[in-house]
């Protein structure tokens, strides 16, 4: 048995070593056929290996030599796998290519901005292994992992003027359609795991609807209802209904959307051709999920994981407040090597994990400086923790974070509070007897239930039938 195993291993090493030679020979034969081939001559025999090559194959380290910068051995399965995520993505390309002037235009745009590509790929290095892995689980084309290049430049904190948020740029309504929680404490449109799952589910649903990945991508950008109407219009005119045939009916952003992805796809496929050098991204998980069983301040979580706040927030961008709530259902993401540090340091911590609790405003309105005095802190600390604008007061019914007191030191924030807490404020005004001052008219513009105060505006397109987000310039 051992002898057979050794023979099999040696044969496998020989085949792998010969693969580049055979591939080159076949490519050469295909590109430059021998003169005799046109006359039915027999194919020439392969030339014998050189003495140097033969010696290399016989050497014990032959297997190690085969571990190029493109392949490495998977210790879990003993199979060879891509060493780099970019190679893994290339091997799963499955969306038909397009080649037109818009593609050429965007290739020029990206390839002449190597610094932009470098920044984007650096950000992507944290998330892209997870995205590719999820795509492969679903049997989806791996170039979809490049879509955040177009959406957000792989910035999970990206927030558009149309209220689209996160790496995959969900507007609030579509986020709710895909069960992405949006409340005062978290916005899962920015969460790496939740938003990726929602985006891939949405893309798969669109592909099932249209049977075409290019149209699915157009619908992801423009809305399925808009693409359906464009298809019906071309059908009525007896015209084709593929992406390029429908492009003239699309707004500029959607018309450029698939060409932009194609441009990025081409550059990733052959970066050297475009003068781009891609940083190596290991074909291994960057982060792992750690269960969190009690409230914990973000600063303490980062400290226990021995991470900077910037790195901690880059992996956990969904949390809106300085305390992470949610009990057993909430997970935090940490780099692989830091997860063990977090667990070890947590076991030795021996102090309170959270310094924040909540307080609900019951009076008609309450000034921030009054609240700060009551809870032994400063107005600036309360405003920063709760994203409260300057020169505003809180209205009745608002729930805010305040420092814990001795009575609440070991009490976590209840899940019904995190799920339902809202905040509303109005402009500060002097106390007046009788009629209200001008500040009362400004209440609507200062109402907010999530991050910063926003104006209450109706979405451009109704839920379910239109655009996932309003059309806007990407570059």
UniProtKB/TrEMBL annotation:
The entry's keywords: Signal
Listed InterPro entries: LysM, LysM_dom_sf, Lysozyme-like_dom_sf, Transglyc_AS, Transglycosylase_SLT_dom_1
Disordered as annotated region, ranges: 427-475
Keyword Chloroplast attributed: no
Composition bias type Basic and acidic residues, residue spans: 427-446
Domain LysM: 357-402
Name of the featured protein: Transglycosylase SLT domain-containing protein
Native source organism of the sequence: Janthinobacterium fluminis
């Amino acid at each position: 048995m051992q002898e057979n195993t050794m023979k099999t291993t040696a044969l496998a090493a020989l085949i792998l070593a010969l693969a580049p030679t055979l591939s080159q020979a076949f490519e050469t034969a295909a590109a430059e056929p021998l003169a005799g081939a046109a006359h039915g001559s027999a194919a020439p025999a392969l030339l014998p290996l050189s003495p140097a090559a033969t010696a290399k194959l016989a050497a014990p380290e032959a297997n190690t030599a085969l571990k190029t910068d493109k392949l490495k051995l998977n210790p879990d399965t003993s199979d060879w796998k891509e060493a780099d995520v970019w190679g893994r993505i290339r091997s799963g390309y499955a969306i038909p290519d397009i080649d037109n002037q818009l593609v050429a235009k965007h290739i020029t745009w990206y390839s002449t901005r190597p610094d932009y590509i470098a920044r984007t790929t650096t950000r992507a290095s944290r998330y892209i292994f997870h995205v590719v892995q999820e795509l492969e689980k679903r049997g989806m084309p791996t170039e979809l992992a490049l879509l955040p290049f177009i959406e957000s430049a792989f910035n999970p904190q990206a927030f558009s003027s149309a209220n689209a948020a996160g790496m995959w740029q969900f507007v609030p309504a579509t986020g709710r359609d895909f069960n992405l929680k949006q409340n005062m404490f978290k916005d899962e449109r920015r969460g790496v795991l939740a938003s990726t799952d929602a985006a891939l589910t949405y893309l798969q649903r669109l592909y099932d609807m249209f049977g075409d990945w290019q149209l699915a991508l157009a619908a992801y950008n423009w809305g399925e209802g808009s693409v359906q109407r464009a298809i019906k219009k071309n059908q009525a005119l007896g015209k084709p209904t593929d992406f390029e045939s429908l492009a003239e009916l699309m707004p500029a952003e959607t018309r450029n959307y698939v060409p932009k992805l194609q441009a990025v796809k081409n550059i990733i496929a052959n970066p050297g051709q475009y003068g781009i050098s891609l940083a190596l991204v290991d074909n291994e998980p960057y982060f792992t999920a750690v269960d969190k069983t009690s409230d914990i301040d973000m600063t303490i979580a980062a400290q226990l994981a021995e991470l900077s706040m910037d790195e901690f927030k880059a992996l956990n961008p969904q949390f809106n407040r300085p305390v992470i709530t949610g009990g057993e259902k909430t997970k935090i993401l940490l780099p692989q090597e830091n997860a063990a540090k977090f667990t070890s340091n947590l076991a030795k911590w021996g102090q309170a994990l959270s310094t924040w609790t909540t307080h609900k405003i019951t009076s008609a309105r309450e000034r921030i400086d009054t609240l700060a005095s009551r809870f032994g802190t400063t107005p600036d600390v309360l405003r920063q923790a709760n994203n409260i604008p300057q020169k505003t007061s809180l209205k009745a019914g608002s729930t805010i974070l305040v420092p814990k007191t001795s009575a609440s030191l070991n009490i976590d924030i209840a899940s019904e509070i995190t799920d339902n807490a809202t905040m509303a404020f109005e402009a500060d005004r002097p106390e007046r007897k009788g009629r209200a001052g001008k500040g009362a008219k400004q209440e609507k513009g200062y109402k907010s239930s999530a991050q910063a105060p926003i104006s209450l505006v109706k979405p451009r397109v109704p839920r379910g039938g239109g655009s996932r987000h309003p059309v806007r310039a990407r570059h």
